[in-house]
Amino acid sequence: MNASRQAEETRGGLLAALGAYGLWGLLPIFFKLLHHVGPFELVAHRVVWSLLLILALLAARQAMRPFWEALTTPRLLLPLTASSILIAINWTTYIWAVNDDHVIAASLGYFLNPLVNVALGVLVLKERLRRGQTLAIIVAGIGVAIMAASALTTLWISIFLALSFAFYGLIRKVTPVAPMAGLGAETLILTPVALAYLGWLWGQGNLMFGQDGFTTTMLIVSGAMTTAPLALFAVAAHRLPMATLGLLQFVAPTLQFLSGILLFGETLNHGQMASFALIWLGLILFASDSVTAARRNRVAAV
Asked: Distance between CA 73 and CA 93 in Å, rounded?
């Protein structure tokens, strides 16, 4: 791949990553509007309505063939089954945490996740870090450690979220399937379980869907709120190194963190304030190193 083509791929990956993380950062606001819906029902609706939207998009783009290939090729179906389970675990844990007033704990999970991504990139994918990247990760890691120490009672939430999404990203990066086709396969794999659970709720008279217009509309919209950032993330995961993808992810938990403090009245202690400053310092160092490296590459390509 020539330098200009690689730069274009990287730029597209950066925009996709920022779009995905920006939307994820706003999810606590969306889910708080559905606090009266149980997390399992909400996840089930996310699966069902996402599948319908994805199938419509694939059909409109005449891209159904990669979707069916992903479902009928064992070397693709097996990792996509694993990634679908991981994302279901991640969704359920996150929704429960937000609606149980643990938005800061949820944001810590996504502060931890970039460091796990970087570790996986180095250990599994053999990616190399520049000296500036290493310094940035150390600074951010100290910030995350301080934040974790100040929130030990809810640390399990953070660990669940960090590990489930980091391994989800790794699987999607190494699985050779188009982003939207892979996402469609994942949701289809989860759909039978989702429909069975919704049917059980309906039989028990506990299904929230259809109870009122607002709830029903928002549950349908949850499909778009699920599909858009995941599709963008899948594009970014294919185009960016795990280290870059990991550090950019601080955008989402920062927005979640601010939502917990400014919108939902969760308290912030001095340790969390210090850790927040260190994490952003690490992000600034990483961004500065990336800009410097990009300029060097452009000069070398001329």
From this structure: 30
Torsion of CA 137, 283, 141, 265, to 10 degrees: -170
What is the structure's pLDDT at 3?
66
In angstroms, the CA 213 to CA 224 distance is 18
Q: What is the pTM of this model?
A: 0.79
Cα–Cα distance, 108 to 250 (Å, whole number): 10
How many domains does the structure of the chain reveal? 1
Phi, psi dihedral angles at 81 (to 5 degrees): -65, -45
Summarize pLDDT for 94-110 with one digit per residue, the tens. 999 988 888 888 888 88
User: 280 and 250 in contact (C-beta within 8 Å)?
Assistant: yes
**pLDDT tens, residue by residue, 161-220:** 989 988 998 898 889 888 888 989 999 999 999 999 999 999 999 999 988 999 999 999
25 touches 256 (CB < 8 A): yes
User: Residue 208 gets which letter from DSSP?
Assistant: -
Query: Judging by beta carbons within 10 Å of its beta carbon (0-12, 13-18, 19+), is residue 126 exposed, middle or buried?
Result: exposed
Domain carrying residue 259: 3-301
CA 79/CA 84 separation, integer angstroms: 9
Helix (H, G, I), strand (E, B) or coil at 269: coil
- Give CA angle at 248 (2, 129), nearest 5°: 60
Nearest to 195 by CA among 92, 85, 43: 43
In sequence order, which residues have a C-beta less than 8 Å from that of residue 181 and are 6 or more positions away?
58, 63, 66, 67, 69, 70
Q: Max alpha carbon distance in the chain (Å)?
A: 68
